[in-house]
Amino acid sequence: MVYEKVDMVNISERPREADDRAVPGFWAGDLIIGQGNKSQIAMLVDRTTRFVMLVRIPYDRNAERVAYLLAKKMETLPEFFRNSVTWDQGKEMARHADFTVRTGMPVYFCDPHSPWQRGSNESINGLLRQYFPKGTDLSVHSREDLDRVAAELNGRPRETLGWRKPVEVFNDLLERHVSP
C-alpha cells in the first residue's frame, strides 16, 4: 500500500523551546533498517534528557503499523513528556496524523537530506549499531532485547548531561513533575 504524506509540518515550525533542549518531551525519531531492508527498529530519543526508547516494528514498516506502534510506546509517558516528535521524510511516517490524533503530539519533518536537523537521533543511531550491526536481521530481537539495549544506553553517562545518565535526568524530571 502506498501512502502520501499530507499536511507535513516542517521542522522550522517546531516550537522554539525544542531548539534549546530546556523543555523535555521533544523527541527525535528514526528507523534503523536491517538486512535487505526487511527488518527495522524504531528509535525515539528525548532531546533534553537523551533518554532512548526502542520500538520493535515486526514484519514491515508500513505507515499504519509504524504510527500505531510509536503511539503505543509514547502513551506510556506522562503527558508533560509528550510535546512532539521530529522525523525525517521517510514514507513510514505517512500516517503521522493518526499518530498525532492518538497521542496529541504533532510530528515535525526535517528538510530532505538534512540529518543534522536531528543530531540527537543520529548520535543514538551510531550507538545502536554497536548492538545491531548493519546488514543483520533485526527481526530476531524481541521487545525484551530492545528494552535491555535501551536500558544500557540510558545508563551510560553523557558529557552533554554533565556526566549524568539519561535515566537519572529522566527520573529527576518525573519526580519533580509529580512532587508538589
Can you put this structure into words, describing what you see?
- It is a single chain.
- The chain is an alpha/beta fold.
- The chain has a single domain (9-178), classed as Ribonuclease H-like superfamily/Ribonuclease H (Nucleotidyltransferase, domain 5, 2-Layer Sandwich).
- The chain is 34% helix and 17% strand.
- The chain contains six helices and six strands.
- The protein has helices spanning 16-19, 63-74, 96-103, 119-131, 143-154, 166-178, and strands spanning 9-10, 26-33, 40-46, 52-57, 84-87, 107-109.
- A six-stranded mixed beta sheet has the order 1-6-5-2-3-4, sandwiched between helices.
- A hairpin with a 6-residue loop joins strand 2 (26-33) and strand 3 (40-46).
- The radius of gyration is 16 Å and the shape is globular.
- The model has no long low-confidence stretch (mean pLDDT 90).
Summarize this structure briefly.
This protein is an alpha/beta fold.
What would you give as the CATH superfamily? Ribonuclease H-like superfamily/Ribonuclease H
Give me the side-by-side strand order of the main sheet. Answer: 1-6-5-2-3-4
Mean pLDDT: 90
Structural class: alpha/beta
Total E-strand runs: 6
Main sheet properties: 6 strands, mixed
| Outline type | globular
The rounded distance between the terminal residues' Cα atoms is 49 Å
Helix content estimate = 25-40%
In CATH, the architecture is: 2-Layer Sandwich
The count of helical stretches stands at 6
Order of helices and strands: EHEEEHEHEHHH
β content, as a range? Answer: 15-25%
Please name the CATH topology.
Nucleotidyltransferase, domain 5
Radius of gyration from CA coordinates: 16 Å
Contiguous runs where pLDDT drops below 50 for at least 5 residues:
none
User: In the residues, how many domains can be counted?
Assistant: 1
State the CATH class.
Answer: Alpha Beta
